[in-house]
Amino acid sequence: MLETVNLKKVFKRNIAADDVNLYLDEGESVGLLGPNGAGKSTTISMMSTLMKPTTGDVKWNGRSVIQNPSEIRKELGVVPQEIALYQELTALENLKFFGKIYGLSGSNLDRKIEEVVDHVGLNERQNELVKNYSGGMKRRLNIAVALLHEPEIIIMDEPTVGIDPQSRNYILEMVRQLNKEKGMTVLYTSHYMEEVERLCDRIYIMDHGKIIATGTKDELTSILSSEESILIELDRDQPNLIERYKQQESILQVTETEKGIKLIVPKGSHQLGTIFDLAEEEQAQIVSMNVQVPTLEDVFLHLTGRKLRD
Ligand SMILES: Nc1ncnc2c1ncn2[C@@H]1O[C@H](COP(=O)(O)OP(=O)(O)OP(=O)(O)O)[C@@H](O)[C@H]1O
């Protein structure tokens, strides 16, 4: 349905997207996951006609998006990261304005507005000025605008950045319904692993402009199927203990967490004795210990050596 072919964008000497190849089949919900600056916005801006690639192409049902931008733009629902609304107008006036740009009018436009306002849960507040909206409401209205012309696909650039947990939850549930109940294809970018885990059938992990892994959540975590992670909660910071663990060849990865340390070890390698012995030598109190199967966050760390939100 939508695919990129060796898509590349170079800003002066910075390669923001480097030979990106990804695709979405009809009805799929696909996540593009990566830290800030990974190249997600650049990639989806090119996919949605908002930016020209340096080289490569984007195909929409076999037709080049680069060759036919204005024609194909009408078929895509695009939710940019920046809020694109008129603050001095009401939500309803904004929707009428953008609806007309999409070529809608009369009772057809009224019906579509009613539908999208309902979908994003803004019925009761549609006559208020956008400047008085909360950040979460503005984001919801931003999404409503992108849905007005009934696109087959919605492309969303980090739609939950900077909003409260309740609005975030609302948006995630809304996107899930669009995909699962209305059958809309979704491309969702985020640096929140939990969001793509919750929403997406398939995930692309991006870093430094490149796609570094792809698959379902299970496929991606199976990259680490021969490993397990051990979460250790400590009574206080223990920099010496972290160093001691790092010196152990049998411990593959050591990361500091909010409350302690996370270790990645080969599955079934019976490291608990060593872990306890070293803690005792460093006079560190282990408050709790948890052995877990790897998460997408672990996969990212494994592939890049960095945390998603460093
Ligand atoms: N217009 C531009 N001019 C120069 N460099 C740019 C431009 N837009 C993006 N970049 C650079 O390209 C790289 C990728 O940026 P991009 O915004 O695509 O990343 P991202 O994964 O979407 O991150 P974020 O979550 O912060 O938006 C970054 O190094 C960024 O500084």
Characterization of this structure:
The protein has 310 residues and is α/β, with parallel strands linked by helices. It has 2 domains: 220 residues, Rossmann fold, CATH 3.40.50; 68 residues, Lrp/AsnC effector binding domain/regulation of amino acid metabolism (RAM) domain (Alpha-Beta Plaits), CATH 3.30.70.920. It is 34% helix and 27% strand. The strands form 3 sheets. The chain has a 6-stranded mixed sheet, with helices on both faces. Strand 8, helix 6 and strand 9 form a beta-alpha-beta unit. The model has no long low-confidence stretch (mean pLDDT 90). Adenosine-5'-triphosphate binds next to strand 2 and helix 1. It is found in: Cell membrane. This is ABC-2 type transport system ATP-binding protein. One of its GO terms (biological process) is doxorubicin transport.
Primary descriptors:
elongated; 5-stranded antiparallel β-sheet; alpha/beta; 6-stranded mixed β-sheet; 11 helices; 310 residues; ATP binding; binds adenosine-5'-triphosphate; ABC-2 type transport system ATP-binding protein; single chain; 34% helix; Rossmann fold; 2 domains; Alpha-Beta Plaits; 15 strands; ATP hydrolysis activity; AAA+_ATPase
